[in-house]
Amino acid sequence: MRGRLEVTLGQCSSAGRKAENQDFHGAFVPDEPLLGTKGISVALADGISSSAVGHVASESAVKSFLLDYYCTSEAWSVKTSAQRVLTAVNSWLHAQTRRSPYQYERDRGYVCTFSALVLKSTSAHLFHVGDARIYRLRGDQFELLTDDHRIVVAGEQTYLSRALGIDRHLDLDYHVLPVKVSDLFVLATDGVHEAFEPQQFAELLRRNEPDLNRLAATIVDAAFEAGSDDNLTLQLVRIDALPDPQAVEIHRHAAELPLPPMLQPRMAFDGFEILRTIHGSSRSHIHLARDQACGTLVALKTPSFDLREDADYLERFLLEEWIARRIDSAHVLKPHARSRPQRYLYVAMEYLEGQSLTQWMTDHPRPSLTAVRAIVEQIARGLQAFHRREMLHRDLRPENVLIDASGTVKIIDFGSTLVAGVHGGGDGDEAVRIMGTHQYTAPECFLGEPATALSDLFSLAVITYQMLSGGALPYGAEVARTSTRAAQRKLRYRPVLDDAREIPGWVDDALRKALDPSPLKRQPELSEFVADLSRPGADYMRLRRQPLIERHPQAFWQVLSLILGVAVLVLLANR
Questions:
Q1: 574 within domain boundaries
Q2: Any long-range contacts for 257-265 (C-beta under 8 Å, 24+ apart)?
Q3: What is the 3-state secondary structure (H, E, C) of 533-573?
Q4: Which candidate, 12, 47, 75, 397, places its Cα nearest to that of 223?
Q5: Can you tell me whether residue 91 is helix, strand or coil?
Q6: Average pLDDT in the chain
Q7: 3-class secondary structure, 504
Q8: pTM for the predicted model, two decimal places
Q9: Interacting residues of 202 by C-beta distance below 8 A, sequence separation 6+
Q10: Tell me, what CATH number does 159's domain have?
Q11: Which pLDDT value is given to residue 253?
Q12: Are 120 and 269 members of one domain?
């Protein structure tokens, strides 16, 4: 028996009698070390026929699963990794529907069925929601491994009861079973499996056809000839070899990574040479290290010794690497590429020569508006990369922003990041817990409300205000002391305008709006805030064109009363 998992794949997909193919499928067979630590993944999705964007949902679901699954921590099990990925995908699809014209018609939104098979070591892990199916053919046994999530309404009329994106919360089926050499796993959308009786389907699969791509195409053609009027997608996975028992045991232990020892300079650790300590705190330790295989400098982040018994802390620590691997942005710190199995619990990130924004602000106490804009624009692009993946940073502050030698700005430290779906999608204690530094935390968080993208906008606006004001805060330290709406209505914004500096009034207006205690009164998008820092906003120009009585009615009547009073006094004095 050979010492690694080997399979043969066969796949075929066709629009059939429909004008558009809303199915999507894919598979990934990685090289080591991912083959051993994560395994082989196969997935298919079927966009629902009532939706015009079903094909977008199915393609996004499969691509996100195949990419994000391999980004998860090696310390997570297959079940944990896949479920985390799929709950995040579900939240993203559901959010797209909420933002679309179909927000009140779930069956027309970004919804699809989804079935996936992950083969790792000598086990098959099945993840399923909807009415596609996964079968296993083993010798004379042809076994259906999944349930159809459909509800019968009347007669033969049915509808999907569960699918990706159909609801905020995902109810996902999971099964794990042992595999044997020559097992044939079959993933089929309803357009294929409904065209045959089980015995007929099994007979087609038993044909002596070594080319599984050709066999898949033959069965798809047979389903079409049998009268199927739906899209047709079929995936076949044959087990050709399994790893030996010793390899299985090694990878079983890889899912139970031990905590690292205390790292010291010149120490060899898991393929790295420790050079020096960059940062140490009660939350984590960061060390500069050199990858001994390629010579690349990396930043190794290890868990705090004080919190090693805190399960919540360790779970959040494991999330950081996955979050970093999911985001593709020049303005977000990147993880170090994996080249070997990981034997301890740590996170390896790219090492950047540069300075924190805190240090930059110390070195530039009176920066130009142009320099501030350049930094803010880059931070905003990094935040947008988080928000596109339905993630909130929640701890944006100058210490978590790095400027490298070329002037590129990057957001670092993802320990407080909220991932929709994975953390409850906006519900529960995790979503309302204050994770960031108080002076940069949005006012709504102190009311116990969930953070939103507008909360990250508030944090960015505080940083912008600090850069323009020499380190001051727009409300002083008052925001953290307000735990009621009444108290927040009493907050008074301190204008950033300074007689000694040329800061336009419309820049202050943009900051005032982004820093409003009510998130509903802030700019609706980060891009709008960035634009408002570069030119007068529409609200500002409209306000400037209004007469004084409309802009400041109280001031108008006070001035008018003063003028009339003076006039009366002058008249009385001249009598």
A1: no
A2: 257/74, 257/75, 257/342, 257/343, 257/344, 257/345, 258/343, 258/344, 258/345, 259/302, 259/303, 259/308, 259/344, 259/345, 260/302, 260/303, 260/344, 260/345, 260/346, 262/305, 263/287, 263/300, 263/302
A3: CCCCCHHHHHHHHCCHHHHCHHHHHHHHHHHHHHHHHHHHH
A4: 12
A5: helix
A6: 89
A7: coil
A8: 0.77
A9: 137, 142
A10: 3.60.40.10
A11: 47
A12: no
Asked if residue 331 has pLDDT above 90, the reply is: yes
Would you say residue 488 has pLDDT above 80?
yes
Q: How many CB atoms lie within 10 A of CB 554?
A: 8
Residues 369 and 445 in one domain: yes
- Total structural domains in the chain? 3
State the greatest distance between any 2 C-alpha atoms of the chain, in Å, as a whole number: 120
Tokens describing residue 494? 């301190």
In this structure, what are the phi and psi dihedrals at residue 152, rounded to the nearest 5 degrees?
-85, 125
- Reading phi first (left if > 0) and then psi (alpha if -120 to 50, else beta), residue 267 is in beta
CATH code for the domain in which residue 469 is found: 1.10.510.10
Give the whole-angstrom CA distance, residue 85 versus residue 421. Answer: 9
Tell me the CA distances in angstroms from 550 to 164, 445, 544, one per residue in order.
50, 33, 10
Tokens of 33: 């070390």
Q: Which two tokens stand for residue 550?
A: 């409309």
Asked if residue 180 lies in contact with residue 223, where contact means CB atoms within 8 angstroms, the answer is no
Burial of 355 (0-12, 13-18, 19+ CB in 10 A): middle
Place of tokens 């030698």: 405
Q: How many helices (H) does the chain have, and how many strands (E)?
A: 18, 22
What is the share, in percent, of the chain residues with pLDDT greater than 70?
91
Question: Do 385 and 339 fall into the same domain?
Answer: no
Q: Specify the pairing of strand 6-14 against strand 141-144.
A: unpaired
Rounded (10°) angle between helices 311-326 and 54-68 = 120
Q: Residue-wise over 77-116: b if at least 16 C-beta within 10 A, else e?
A: ebeebbbbbbbbbbbbbbbbbeeeebeeebebbbbbbbbb
Tokens of 377: 């624009």
Task: Classify 234 as helix, strand or coil.
Answer: strand
Tokens 């705090």 belong to 304
Domain that holds residue 187: 6-251
Model confidence pLDDT, tens digit, residues 212-270: 999 999 999 999 999 999 999 999 999 999 987 555 544 454 456 788 999 999 999 99
What is the C-alpha separation between 187 and 205, in angstroms, rounded?
A: 12
The per-residue pLDDT for range 430-483, each reduced to its tens digit, is 556 667 688 999 999 999 998 999 999 999 999 999 999 999 999 998 998 998
Cα–Cα distance list, 74 to 37, 347, 417, 459 (Å): 6, 10, 20, 32
- Domain assignment present for 43: yes
Q: Which residues, listed in sequence order, are joined to residue 284 by a DSSP beta bridge?
A: 303
Is there a contact between 92 and 67 (Cβ–Cβ < 8 Å)? Answer: no
CA angle, 210 as apex, 206 and 216 as ends, to 5°?
65
